[in-house]
Amino acid sequence: MTNKRWIGLIALLVAEAMNLLDATIVQVAAPVIHSELGGRTSDIQWFSAAYTLPFAALLITGGRLGDRYGRRRVFVLGVTAFVLTSAVCAVVSDAGLLIGARAVQGAAAALVIPQTIGLIKSSFSGGQLAKALGTIGPVMGLAGISGPLLGGLITEVSSWRAVFLVNVPLGLAVLALSRLLPESASPRPPGIDAVGTVLLTVGTALVVYPVLQSGDWVLLAVGVAVLGVCAVQQGRRSEGRLIETSLFAHRGFAPALITSTLFFAVLSGITLVVVLHQQLTLHHSVMQSSLTLLPWSAASGVTSLVAGQWLVARFGSRLMYVGLGVLVAGLAVTPYALVLGLAVGGIGVGLFTTAFFTEALHRVEPHETGSAAGLLNAVQQFGGTFGVAAFGSLFLHHPAGLDRTVWVAVAVVVLTFATAHFMRSPRWLALGRAVREPVRTGR
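and the corresponding structure tokens:
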């Protein structure tokens, strides 16, 4: 029985890695896809954004569906849809159809990813649970490093279509192993907030679309208004909320969401811009551009491991500021020495992310940890989507593409210093206590 549990864990880890690989592989292959399928220049950004937008918007709902109808059942449904849409992506002959298939693929991923932690907790306990959870970080780090390399290698040796076909045998293997996973569901099944999901998805799409393509700022304003309506609707809903509003009474959690949005916008945006610069400006091959990203990914992975093992315990949340400072230094060097700048920036990313998530979650109550982690993950995806839209458009529509984009990224990271400070600010912590007291007393 024990061996079956560990084999089942492999299925969960492969599913997690498939999601991360799919996002990073396609970023590297996007310019080649556009050159073959044609279409508008903005389609390059949509190949990534069409995936991450529904993934982010439906991530929390996907978790609720697993809690209500069974995590293994929803996991299998999501992986099946992911495999099928991957096959569709591999055979389409039109950019619009590819973008549509990517959107469905992102929605399928939103059914898969939220189930993994719950299924691991259902399969293991005690010391085995800690060991099982400890495998997630290294696997995700390896997937993050491997994604750009695999994207370049597969596209160079075969074609961009093979990038999507990789998911088919992996997904089928996951489905074969998923029968070893136990079924589990919440003892108190939550309600499904369909209205909140629609408002959140539509509002976010209206905010991202003008940045990616139309430049219609009226649409952006409408999107912001729809998100405002969503916030009011969440506050008034008594149960089954899409977002647990009690989290905002926690000290520093709201600034953490803003910090996550800004930081991951830079992270995803700069990654795409480096690929575009390599392939569209310097006319390097896909493999060359993927190798250029290796110092960024490798430095980030190694540093996050070191930070998690030793540095966060010693320096605490102050490590966030060190990480952001190193990232600024790396970005500033990038226009003059690209590989060196990316390596230094990757070190900053690794230092920041480990300290950030520790700081963002350590004050959250135990029963709210799942909701908090889910919301942070969703905001991370939203930030990445917006970063791809904003930084990609800035690069593509201005002649001084890389230089201008990098300096805007530096400005956003500097702003992130301020929002990270509010996570620890004594004034904000006092406000959190004042807000949380009425929540606890029911006033």
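(Above: one complete record from the training split.) The chain has a mean pLDDT of 85.
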